[in-house]
Known about the structure:
GO terms for molecular function: hydrolase activity, hydrolyzing O-glycosyl compounds. The chain is α+β, with helices and mostly antiparallel strands.
Amino acid sequence: MIRISFNDGWETRPKVNPFAELSGTSVEFRPVTLPHDAMIGQDRVDPQGAATMENGAGAYFPGGTFEYRKTFSVPEEHRGKRIFLEFEGVYRDATVHINGDYAGQRPYGYSHFHIDADRYLRFGQDNEIRVEARAHRDSRWYTGAGIYRDTWMLIGETARIAQDGVRVTTPDIDRDRAVVEVEARIENDSLAIRTLDLAVEIRDAAGAVVAADVAKVTVLPGEPAIARPRLYVFDPALWGTGSPSLYTCALSLREEGAEVDTETVAFGIRTLQLDPRFGLRINGRPVKLRGACVHHDNGVLGAATFARAEERRVELLKDAGFNAIRMSHHPMSTAMLDACDRLGVLVMDEAFDMWTSAKNEFDYSLNFPEWWERDIEAMVAKDVNHPSVIMYSIGNEIPEAGSAAGAAWGRRLAEKVRSLDGTRFVTNGVNNMLAVLPEVLKSRRQRQAAEPAAEGINTVMADAGDMMNMVGASGLVSERTAESYAVLDVAGMNYSESRYALDEELFPNRIIVGAETFSTHIDGNWKLVERYGHVIGDFTWTGWDYLGEVGIGRPQYLSPESPRPVHVAPYPALLADCGDLDITGHRRPVSFYREIVFGLRSAPYIAVRRPQHHGKTWGGSPWAWSDAVSSWTWPGFEGEPITVEVYGGADEVELLVNGASLGRRPVGAEQRFRTEFETAYAPGELVAIAYRDGAESGRHVVRSAQDGLRLRAEADRPVLASEGGDLAYVAFTLTDEHGTVHTAADRPVRVEVSGAGVLAGFGTAVPATEERFDATERTTYEGRALAVLRPTGTGKIRLRAAAPGCEPVELLVAVE
């Protein structure tokens, strides 16, 4: 079918009750280009009281109902053709009307869906489509709202290749050749029997045809037919993380020699194997998953899913040492899947965060019993040709997993996935403590009754790692989760590394993945991953910081006034503050620590704790890294005590402060890959030198910023495409004349954008702020800010930026 972008020409507004409009209430529509997040531009709400999980989950953004409309025309010559509208994602409870008539709906906010539109259209005239979306206390994270992913118009003949109707599998592969089986669903909405030819070509990365075939297909009216040609690719280039070779399958549907439809899909040729001795093997080679959990928001863009934003996240995560992504906790966008295919990053795609038990008042559990099968079908249809996808996860921390009824639901979902795609593995991110939570709470109530001074919920959350591991290793969990794990190919375990060694004995055929783990536990977790064949990887919470669940990873310090840590940060907290990379894509110290633990970085890394907190008692959660920054610029703290953290995988590390050695200290695995030095702050230079077997194996230098502040602006690429969701990311830094970032000289930066583009988002990684992402002025955070430019045509995008005390800067980005 012909695919035409349907992203332009939309307008949006908060939904107004039509009766209220009749009485004079009016809210104007404003023009937008999709993808669009209707929530990110709202004013956040200060709860003016205690922060709770409910009001902090969505970063204090209010919910609401949002209305979109668009006027479009369909030429008269398209009368008699089949026309569908495809929505890749609308959050949430989407309803679609065309020319005033109900045309369809989709409750789940993360499934792509199609609207059969031609019956509602007025050919040769203007048509109006209206889409409503709702978001209200229905998630544990920032979801955004509205039509936040791409939309398409699909135009086809009455005989055609169905939408999502092509599936390519490679069931038999060896070094010399690969069998490529193409499954094509052909539909016939005419009144006559149609006999057509389906021509198939397999092309390599250079575009050369390496296999071809023609299959004859007879399709009865209203009864789809499946064509299944088998082709053979000799000397195949295998897809893998080191060499992500892609092929394309081009299909042409012909009738009496005339072409009536075409379709092209990308795919990869690779094998997957799984067993408890060798773990996961791809193309016969063992692979340990260095995984990152990520949410779907794109930081300063909110939930809007632009192709370039998704690609950039995958690029930066891979550069940071990850080879796998778990989309948490919903299906991944097509754009991110495409990027993972191209870049060689493995994917665990996840279906749901809840089944029949609600986690929020108005969440998807209200729709799950009626819609789960259709949403599973949508996820698999989206993923099936992507070689990066190796596992489907049917859920995350589902409370039912510890019950018999929950195990039955798990079996239903797992078997549904297998019926649609038997070429990948099925997992489920089970939180073992949550699975037996009723018993845990009952025991806690009994203990509190006997000991009134027993710990409260904040202490439980602060000790979440120990608590989850202790309960997770219990016999109660072994018994209650046995069936829920048995229905899976891979037992996904959240925060339960205590079971890794235990289950090798109790369940010798069980294969485990750490589906969600604390970043602060990565050194111990990775040792277990490397030691045990049945443990295939670790997915940290989280690879990329995100909006919502505010403050779960923020640094906290205890005091008489605050004797216990608080799980949720108060307004104006904005971010979870727990990613290896912050929301702008800047790597935080934990990212370099993880790279060292993975064995991917030989040089040491220096991070300096903020001197204003020196000597205080740490109280952060197990999601919280220290408050260290890789900076030696701390004006006002000259002569004050300061702690320097050094990470390294060598035998020992030496720290020099302005040329004076503070001695050598052991580092590496036995020291949890880190050590600390106490000194007094004096501007100048820090040098960490790592030694292995007595010889230097790497060094890291951090210098103080000097006088002469400058504002620098650098675009990630000089040329953009005018279509296809391209963006330019402009990084602003405040530096001295030598390029050293001044982390302690933050000031407002004002930007002006003109020409062939607009400012799509502007912000920083500051964890708490009332500044907005749709403003033209933002205050830098630790010397950095990020602007995102979206093209609106061809030509040049001109950006001018100014900050107090700095010379203005300008840059041009070409759009072709």
